[in-house]
Amino acid sequence: MKKLTLLALILFPLFVKSQEISQQYKVYDVKQQKTVSLDEIVAAMANADVLFFGEEHNDSIGHYLEVSLFKKLAVAYNNKVGLTLEMFHTDVQPVINEYLAGIINEKNFIKEARAWNNYKDYEPMIAFAKSQGIAVIGANAAGRYSNSVTKNGLEILAKLPANSKQFLPPNTVDTLTGRYYEKFIALLGGHGMGAMKVYQTQNFWDATMAWSIAKFAKENKGKKIFQVNGRFHSDEKLGTYAQLKKYAPKLKALNIAAFAAEDFDNPDWEQHQHLGDYVILTNPKVKKSF
């Protein structure tokens, strides 16, 4: 019964009928300049270590594709994979491990691992990992640290007790100029000291996720890593993607930018191709998950 429930969660559509799912997204390979299948992305991972899935957090089709890709990676690479998530923090890793091992129940896991309000969107991936003995890594920095950086700047991290520092990267790269900075300031709507500290927090998140990926890769040689984060963190191979190159320059990563696009019916791929190795457009008419 448990397997049937899991299968239903994975195959049942999020707000659309399962037989219609394939009509709700389009996958574009930027290098080959053509539409491809999910299986072709999985095959390309034979020559890569990390696959970034940059999502919109409320994209129902995007969440369906995440679990589909994760399952396909697990099958193709004999479960030699790991799942790293923006949605969980480094300091709750023991709670994640306890749940995956079947020691604690889901109710306690959700509460004590501080799961996001839309946990249901990520539950199928975690349930699949649990059923297959696949590691799930909370990759992001805890909110209390992020809030402190926003208020005080990155220098506050140096004052943390040693026991706290174990959950954070040894250094956070703060790029004051360049494309990522300009994108972030444009998103906020202008410059200013307040904006700078928020930008430092963004860099802090990126660095922590990159460090978490690099650490898992070092401890699990040969495993493919599926990293799920908001697309701003990896679009244009910036943010977390760029920070990963600093923590683990030898790791090869591919990235996906997935989002609901107004030009879904007649995509302008040239407009989107700067975003990554693969661009997935989803139907904006499909109801959002929250």
Q: What's a quick, concise take on this entry?
A:
The protein has one domain (2-17, 24-282): Rossmann fold (3-Layer(aba) Sandwich). The chain has an 8-stranded mixed β-sheet, sandwiched between helices. It has helices at residues 2-11, 38-44, 60-76, 93-100, 106-112, 123-132, 143-152, 162-165, 179-188, 193-219, 240-247, 269-272, and strands at 25-29, 34-35, 50-55, 81-89, 135-140, 224-230, 253-260, 278-282.
Write the layout of secondary structure elements.
Layout: H1 2-11, E1 25-29, E2 34-35, H2 38-44, E3 50-55, H3 60-76, E4 81-89, H4 93-100, H5 106-112, H6 123-132, E5 135-140, H7 143-152, H8 162-165, H9 179-188, H10 193-219, E6 224-230, H11 240-247, E7 253-260, H12 269-272, E8 278-282
Parallel strand pairs: 3-6, 3-7, 4-5, 4-6, 7-8
Antiparallel strand pairs: 1-2, 1-8
Helix pairs in contact: 2-3, 7-10, 10-11
Question: How would you describe what is shown here?
Answer:
The chain is of the alpha/beta class. The protein has a single domain, classed as Rossmann fold (3-Layer(aba) Sandwich), CATH 3.40.50. It is 42% helix and 17% strand. It has helices at 2-11, 38-44, 60-76, 93-100, 106-112, 123-132, 143-152, 162-165, 179-188, 193-219, 240-247, 269-272, and strands spanning 25-29, 34-35, 50-55, 81-89, 135-140, 224-230, 253-260, 278-282. An eight-stranded mixed β-sheet has the order 2-1-8-7-3-6-4-5, with helices on both faces. The longest helix is centred in the last third of the chain and has 27 residues, at 193-219. The radius of gyration is 19 Å and the shape is globular. Residues 1-15 have low confidence and may be disordered.
